[in-house]
Design brief:
Number of strands: 2
Number of helices: 9
Shape: flat
Largest sheet: 2 strands, antiparallel
Length: 192
Amino acid sequence: MLTLIDRAVSLHNGIFERIEGGLSGWFPGLLARLIFASVLLAFFWKSAATKVGEGIFSPSDGAYAQIFPKTLEALEYDTAGFSFFHTLIVLLGTYAEFILPLLILIGLMTRLASLGMIGFIIVMSIVDVFGHGMDAKTAGSLFDRFQDGIIADQRLLWVFPLVYLIVKGAGFISVDALVAQFRKNGAMATQS
């Protein structure tokens, strides 16, 4: 009986070690980037597009409404009352929505871009709860029996591929890998 179990374990390990060996280094990072892009790239780009005003340094009124809803209401919807600091935050948030997803997709500065995207998602969630008054039922909670909480469930799943990319990187099929190879070849050339 033990021999049968040993053979089954050995067969199992052999199969999955081959799969892991064939896919490691390129597939998980590529898959994490493609999943992020397929689910969130268009979402963030479309959101960013609603924040652009007449020029790249001129946010739309809607940008202030999305990021600082209570402040805009207190200013009686007059965006001229916002400080330079508020405008800077709106512009940086808008640029982050355009740039960070693109960097993740192509695999350039992937770890830093993923970390920035997680920060962006956290800030976005805080604004949704405190700025837009999202109720507890909509936000959801962890380990409940419902899977549709916008923050507790959905955004936690958004963050998972980003955490993977921070820990493991973009993989061999990425601009990061090309840059690393170029630097390695350049270092080898200077040593010769």
